[in-house]
Specification:
GO terms for molecular function: polyphosphate kinase activity. By secondary structure, the protein is of the alpha/beta class. The protein contains 10 helices and 5 strands.
């Protein structure tokens, strides 16, 4: 049910103005992470159609993929299924100077795997017991761990699913697993609450973002990240382009005659 106290959805012009300000700060954060060799993990979790993908895009579209690295792991291979559950995630952990963004993470075991029966109740219970210990090991090792849950309402989720069904540009986002999860709203709610109870710890707390308004959610996420990772603006030397050398001048356009260019349709 919609929240009667929620503000009206943000207009595009206001959103783009605020997003630009935050993205400038992300560039400053990026330089600080690089110079200080920080190691950061940001987890994005939430129901299907909660807005994770759009938020990650807003977060990363103006920064370097060599610093902000997005990790969206596919279904595990047979070999990976035989490994320790967390092994393939730990392989993606950051080195100094990196921010790794998990578009879904090891918390799959507490959500989709548990609800859909892809793991046993014993495996689920064991994960909830061990996960806080593994996260403490990571944090004690110098990793800044930010865990974000995008909370979308039932009605808004249905609207987004319907939009995906009707829009050919978004139909690829709708998998059979997504449609199956749609009918299991309350199973996912119970799984979510069990996960929070077991893994919302002092060393690795969860932070929830209401995401019925995608634009506000994106801004709130970026703002939270900027306040969670202490950083300073690094003064950069002003760049001046050198004069182009005229030595050995060469007609570099005539040499392209006869080459096949793409047809200019626009």
């Amino acid at each position: 049910m919609a929240n009667a106290d929620a503000p009206p959805k943000m207009k595009r012009k206001e959103y783009e103005k605020e997003l630009h300000k935050l993205q400038v700060e992300l560039c400053h954060l990026q330089e600080w992470v690089k110079t200080q060799k920080l190691k950061v993990i940001i987890l994005f979790e939430g129901r299907d159609a909660a807005g994770k993908g759009g938020t990650i895009k807003a977060l990363t579209e103006k920064v370097s993929p060599r610093v902000f690295r997005v990790c969206a792991l596919p279904t595990p291979s047979d070999r990976q299924k035989s490994q320790l559950f967390l092994q393939r995630y730990v392989e993606q952990f950051p080195a100094g100077g990196e921010i790794v963004i998990f578009d879904r993470s090891w918390y799959n075991r507490a959500g989709v795997e548990y609800v859909m029966g892809f793991c046993s109740p014993e495996q689920h219970k064991r994960f909830l017991e061990l996960c806080p210990q593994v996260e403490k090991f990571a944090v004690d090792g110098g990793i800044i761990l930010i865990k974000l849950w995008l909370e979308v309402g039932m009605e808004e989720q249905e609207l987004r699913f319907q939009a995906r069904i009707e829009d050919p540009l978004r139909q690829w986002k709708l998998s059979p697993m997504d449609t199956e999860s749609f009918g299991r709203w309350y199973d996912y709610s119970r799984a979510r609450d069990m996960m929070f109870k077991a893994t919302d710890t002092k060393h690795a707390p969860w932070r929830l973002i209401r995401s019925n308004d995608k634009r506000r959610a994106r801004l709130n996420v970026i703002s939270h990240i900027l306040t969670t990772i202490p950083y300073k603006k690094i003064k950069r030397d002003k760049v001046e382009l050198p004069k182009r050398s005229q030595k050995g001048r060469y007609n570099d356009q005539s040499s392209l005659r006869g080459m096949k260019f793409v047809e200019e349709c626009y």
